[in-house]
Design brief:
globular; eight-stranded parallel beta sheet; 13 helices; eight-stranded mixed beta sheet; binds zinc ion; 427 residues; alpha/beta; disordered C terminus
């Protein structure tokens, strides 16, 4: 059968030396070879790097872009939670949709093709955010696969009415359920209830966990025990786990082995962890970013993700996962090529595994979710925060970024509005 499109002359991440042609038909990758003879429409990647779509395993679309209605005075986790709790009483579906769409479009423009968004569900906001984000997921399916993780940000046991709302959201089609045990006085009870709800609706779980720097206790033991008891290995992720950054190496490595044995994946959220932790120090401020790449050596599925965008948890954000990988490499003091490649893995294949994304990666028979980066090597992508030039989502172009042009003074002046010839990466 005829191909729809050939992406030619591409360096493929993880495939070694040389360039390849990628044949696409009906949204799927059909063939990959050094040279594919075909008269289908084609585009020359010019020897640039092609990676599978970026995967953001942890973001909060529903509370993004609310800096104009919140204040940041202490910069602590508690302040962020209470500020958002107050703001979300005024959330409407239209408001959540508009802000979330703004953030989601940024992510698509950065080459993200799959995403897990946490959605707050409780007695204050009800299903308002859930309904808005569900509509968003349907409207933007052309550019990104968006999964909804409903969770109780302000607690479950201490927050009457929240469990009923979570049940409603699960019955209405939530993709998975999250927990936030540190928001409850009975953290163990919170974890227990989330596992029971997950079992009842057969959903994967994603906890916000151990978001502090006190190494004297941890909720990881409870999560590992429950995952074993419910045979939930491979279906549970934990996010932040800043506490691990405060543990001595032996304890850290012990937890790496226990998390691997229990099949618990870990997401580190560098921007929020850097912004909120260590606020009680006035010098030698701990950075609170767990060195998650060290857990990978034990077999833990590891991911770096965005978390919050333009709100009191993180008043920054361009939704670039390459920037997050670079930030992490900088904080974790990683600079060699192999380590930088592992950072790229943690925004591509790692989160894809964490989210149990099927048929992920640049292989024949997989969906044609591809991003062309303006570089030739994986390490350079992270080191230089390289810009994505365009992406294909199921074989269809989802965005194009024009390459910048230098206007050197000694060059013959060109009219400002003259149309330029299209680059190899535009069509
Ligand atoms: Zn989060």
């Amino acid at each position: 059968m005829a191909n729809d499109f050939i992406l030619r002359n591409a360096v493929i991440a993880g495939r070694g030396e040389g360039t390849f042609d990628i044949a696409i038909r009906d949204g799927m990758i059909r063939d990959i070879a050094p040279r594919i003879a075909s008269d289908a429409l084609s585009e020359d990647a010019g020897g640039r790097l092609v990676v599978p779509g970026f995967v953001d395993s942890h973001i909060h679309l529903d509370k993004s872009c609310i800096l104009d209605r919140c204040r940041i005075e202490q910069g602590t986790l508690q302040e962020a939670i209470s500020q958002v709790a107050a703001a979300k009483r005024d959330f409407t579906e239209d408001d959540v949709y508009a802000r979330a769409a703004r953030t989601l479009e940024k992510a698509i423009l950065q080459g993200t093709t799959a995403m897990r968004t946490h959605v707050e569900v409780d007695a204050r906001v009800g299903l308002t955010s859930f309904n808005a984000i569900r509509k968003l997921a349907a409207d933007y399916a052309w550019g990104i696969d968006l999964k909804l993780c409903v969770f109780p940000q302000e607690g479950l046991i201490n927050d009457p009415g929240t469990e009923e709302m979570l049940v409603n959201a699960c019955e209405a089609g939530a993709d998975l359920i999250g927990g936030c045990p540190y928001a409850d006085s009975d953290r163990s009870g919170h974890i227990d209830r989330i596992f029971k709800l997950a079992r009842r609706f057969d959903l994967d779980i994603d906890f916000h966990l151990d978001f502090d720097l006190d190494p004297s206790w941890t909720d990881m033991a409870d999560v590992c025990r429950q995952a074993d008891a419910h045979r939930y290995g491979g279906r549970v992720a934990i996010g932040h786990v800043t506490k691990l950054s405060a543990m001595p190496p032996r304890d850290f490595e012990d937890w790496g082995r226990r998390l691997a044995d229990a099949g618990i994946a870990v997401t580190v959220l560098p921007t929020t962890d850097l912004f909120l932790t260590g606020r009680d120090h006035d010098h030698n401020v701990p950075r609170g970013v767990t060195h998650v790449h060290r857990l990978a050596s034990h077999g833990v599925t590891c991911s770096l993700a965005t978390n919050n965008v333009l709100n009191p948890f993180t008043p920054f954000g361009d939704c670039s996962l390459i920037r997050i990988a670079n930030l992490y490499a900088n904080v974790a003091q990683l600079g060699d090529a192999s380590s930088l490649c592992s950072c790229l893995d943690m925004v591509t294949s790692g989160p894809a595994r964490l989210m149990n994304v099927e048929a992920y990666g640049i292989k024949a028979g997989h969906p044609a979710d591809l991003v062309v980066l303006d570089c030739r090597e994986e390490a350079a992508a992270v080191a230089e925060i390289v810009q994505p030039l365009f992406a294909l989502k199921r074989g269809r172009r989802s965005f194009t970024r024009a390459q910048p042009t230098l206007h050197r003074p000694h060059q013959p002046a060109a009219p400002q509005c003259q149309s330029r010839t299209s680059s190899p990466c535009e069509r």
